[in-house]
Structure formats: C-alpha cells, structure tokens
Design brief:
Length: 171
C-alpha cells in the first residue's frame, strides 16, 4: 500500500491544489477564461464534426482556398442532409465537377450575414443563383428550409447549419 501511495504522489493529477489567498476587496478578480479559438470557414466546418461530406466535396471542387481567403456566409448542410438526398442526385452532383461547384457555391453568399441580417427576399449566391430568405416566427428559412443553428462565427465569415442540402433550380 505504501508503494502505491508513493507512486501516486508523483502524479500531478493527484497533487493537492495550490493554496489560495483570499483576494482583497479592492483587487480585481484574476480568473480569466480563454476565448474559444476561431477558425476560417473551412476549419470551422471541420471542427463542427458533422460536415465531413461537405468538407470532402469542397476539396473535390477545388474551393478550399476560395473559402479560406474571402469573406462569406455559408449555409452548411450536415452529413445527415447529404444522406437524405436521393442517391442518384448525390451521385450526379459528385460525378460532375461543374455541377458540384455550382451546388456548393449555391450555399455561399458574399460577406458576413448573421441571422439578424437575413431579411425576407432574394439573396445572391456565389453561384449567381438567388436563394430566398423567409421567416416563420423567429425561425429563418432559406428556400423554405429552416436554419438549424446559426451565427457560428469564423475568422472570415459565418456558418449557418442546414438540415437539408439546398438544390439549385433546374435551368
């Protein structure tokens, strides 16, 4: 038993906390919390953990540098959103580089638009095809699809999480 206690005494996790000194009533509190680290739009999507399908498609379309260097609002579909697409639609998007780039850039708007900035009406995308913003109570909808979570800040824009993939209208 003594051997076990000696072995644990070297473990910093078992060490007692350092003594604290009661702050004087005039001293400012010294506890600080580190702010959450901000990433660019691509890093933010990767950190989210539920955007691996989107991230892979961004790589396949050659859009990584574009999304890292510009300032954008991204309506990011989750992995489940891609799984909900009919397989023939998903494959037709993935198999055609031009279609893939169009679908992805249809989810991207120039500039940083927080939820409060999204007003009812058309919204121009990087693809050159307008989205339609509307509201249902406090919920913001894009083409009738609710934003699941919004205002996820990035160093060069903002991400709004979508439960569905936004499919551009057929020509």
């Amino acid at each position: 038993m003594a051997l076990t206690a000696a072995a644990c005494a070297d473990d910093l996790a078992d060490a007692p906390p350092p003594p604290t000194i009661a702050p004087s009533s005039t001293a400012a509190p010294t506890t600080t919390l580190m702010p959450a680290k901000l990433y660019d739009l691509v890093g933010t999507a990767l950190q989210g953990g539920d955007f691996s399908q989107l991230a892979g498609m961004v790589v396949d379309a050659g859009l990584v540098e574009t999304l890292r260097t510009g300032e954008f609002t991204v309506f990011a579909p989750t992995n489940d959103a891609f799984r909900n697409l009919p397989l023939d639609v998903l494959h037709s998007v993935q198999d055609d580089e031009t279609t893939l780039a169009t679908v992805l850039t249809y989810h991207v708007v120039p500039g940083t638009l927080m939820l409060a900035d999204l007003q009812d009406g058309p919204l121009a995308t990087v693809a050159g095809i307008d989205l339609t913003v509307s509201h249902q109570g406090d919920t913001v909808l894009i083409n009738g699809v609710p934003i699941v979570a919004g205002d996820v800040k990035a160093t060069n824009g903002v991400v709004h999480v979508m439960g569905d993939v936004l499919v551009p209208p057929a020509d």
